[in-house]
Write a structure and sequence with these properties.
single chain; 157 residues; alpha+beta; Aminopeptidase; 5-stranded mixed β-sheet; 5 strands; 23% strand; globular; Diverse_Substrate_AcTransf; GNAT_dom; N-acetyltransferase activity; Acyl_CoA_acyltransferase; N-acetyltransferase domain-containing protein
Length: 157
């Protein structure tokens, strides 16, 4: 397996994997997510691939087929004046193809992202997990992540 930055040729495969992630979220929150859609379009992915502040890392097999990805964003913190300034690498989305889960691809991808964050001078790696996505929560806890903050909601409908 080779972990590298995404290329434009990866876009069709990224779309397939984005569909898998969307379905997980739609199963958890059908009131918010629309099945059969994706978070990004082909055009948006093409722009993101060129943007060094939004690196997309892919785990490719020996045939250079993308088996998983990590969409990342470099963010400057803080959100307010009462915090020390620092750089954070936010994982916007991480996915491993359902057919290849359990082969430690996600672990290798996450370790790669952590090393990239160190190389970029980041203080931390952060991400969000939807409540109800217990397999993702368990995976990230296994990788050493701890809850930083919780966002709560009250649905009015």
């Amino acid at each position: 397996m080779n972990i590298r930055r995404a290329h434009e040729k990866d876009i069709p495969r990224l779309i397939e994997l984005l569909e898998q992630v969307l379905q997980i979220h739609a199963d958890i929150r059908p009131d918010i997510f629309i099945p059969g859609t994706t978070k990004y379009t082909n055009e948006e992915l093409a722009e993101m691939i060129k943007d060094d502040t939004k690196p997309i890392y892919v785990a490719a097999d020996d045939d250079d087929i993308c088996m998983g990805y990590a969409f990342c964003q470099i963010r400057q913190q803080p959100f307010s004046n009462n915090m020390v300034p620092f750089t954070s690498l936010f994982i916007d989305d991480l996915c491993v193809d359902a057919k290849t889960r359990g082969q430690h691809i996600g672990e290798q991808l996450f370790e790669y992202v952590k090393n990239e964050a160190k190389h970029l001078g980041c203080y931390e790696v952060t991400l969000n997990v939807w409540s109800g996505n217990t397999s993702a929560e368990k995976f990230y806890e296994k990788m050493g992540l701890k809850t930083k903050e919780r966002q709560m909601e009250y649905i009015l409908m």
